[in-house]
Design brief:
globular, 352 residues, alpha/beta, 13 helices
């Protein structure tokens, strides 16, 4: 029995499909709060086939979680549940603290009390903050230096997870960070799906600032592959030196070592769609406090887990664009419900 939280979100739903395919003997229990930024349609096929049993639960609800653990005898927990968009966090940081801090601690406590086999917490590269010019990359031992409300809430969750690792050594806890993901089912507010869906609607794809922000990109299927290695790797004891070196904790960072600027990303999207960059892209005001660059080193995951990304970027981008073309009804339904998802940071009345 594997509990997947945030199962109706982008990475959570992709991981649910990955597990259903790779582990046919596993029963998936999925929970999601079902905010306007998650989509139950992502997992309808898994529900219909009986591979996944869904419950609408907020992970800050300790009693509801405890009832699920007891009812199903949960063995593994993979916690994806989080608010995860920097733009929205600027306008509503409270909801991010609610899910990413309180929620992270609540589900850890339920796992502690119910003695699950392994609890895996999914975090983000952004907890490491801005990459200085003298820093070649981040890794598991890098200090947490988050500077936005979203990344700060995830960093606070990280600290709680680390504290449980060291305070309750009998618990089997692991944590991951990952490069920026792309692929199917990504909510059309993030850079890649927003650009694709805007262009498909005859609108402009938007680039913040000068578009030279650099990101490290990994296909969501490769991320799921890495997470599954963490779920099933041998248990590790907590090294006594981990208190001063978090790299010794069971934390794993995933990357394909593929770094691109936002301009380069949109150039590739335009090329796949057969469009001219100059006619399809509009430079707009940058969002406040926008991280310029971050890159992580996956060496530990490669060495200890045998992690190797399999999706080549250009092929993955072509497949991603094709998915949004083939699943137009999926993202049009979202936009019909939520309205336009881009935020105009040049107009104060629209950015609040």
């Amino acid at each position: 029995m594997i509990l997947i939280t945030g199962v109706a979100g982008f990475i959570g739903s992709n991981y649910a499909h990955f597990v259903a395919k790779q582990h046919p003997d596993y029963q998936l229990i999925g929970v999601d709060k079902l905010t306007p930024y998650s989509c139950r349609d992502n997992i309808r096929d898994l529900e219909a086939s009986g591979r996944l049993i869904f419950h609408q639960v907020d992970i800050v609800d300790q009693q509801a979680l405890a009832e699920l653990y007891q009812k199903y005898g949960i063995n593994y927990v993979v916690n994806f549940a989080a608010e995860s968009h920097n733009d929205r966090a600027i306008n509503n940081p409270t909801s991010f603290v609610h899910s990413n801090v309180v929620g992270a601690q609540t589900i850890l406590e339920v796992s502690r009390l119910h003695g699950v086999k392994r609890h895996v917490h999914i975090s983000t590269i952004e907890v490491y903050g801005e990459q200085g010019e003298t820093v070649p990359y981040f890794d598991e031992s890098s200090p947490l230096n988050a500077k936005t409300p979203y990344s700060a809430s995830k960093a606070a969750g990280d600290i709680i997870v680390r504290s449980y690792m060291q305070t309750y050594p009998d618990m089997d806890i692991a944590m991951t960070h990952c490069a920026n993901n792309y692929g199917p089912f990504q909510f059309p507010e993030k850079l890649i799906p927003l650009a694709i869906t805007n262009i498909l609607r005859g609108k402009k794809a938007l680039l913040y600032g000068d578009g030279l922000q650099k990101r490290d990109w990994l296909h969501v299927e490769d991320h799921c592959r890495g997470i599954d290695l963490v779920v099933h790797c041998p248990a590790s004891s907590i090294n006594e030196n981990a208190a001063t070196n978090p790299g010794l904790l069971p934390i794993y960072d995933f990357s394909a070592r593929h770094e691109l600027t936002n301009i380069e990303i949109l150039q590739k999207i335009c090329k796949v769609l057969g469009k001219e960059f100059e006619s399809c892209v509009q430079f707009v005001a940058d969002r406040p406090n926008h991280d310029r660059r971050y890159l992580i080193n996956p060496e530990k995951a490669e060495r200890e887990l045998g992690f190797r990304p399999e999706v080549e970027f250009d092929a993955g981008m072509e497949a991603t664009v094709a998915w949004y073309i083939d699943n137009r009804q999926w993202w049009e339904n979202i936009i019909d419900t939520t309205g336009e998802l881009a935020i105009d940071w040049a107009t104060p009345s629209l950015s609040k």
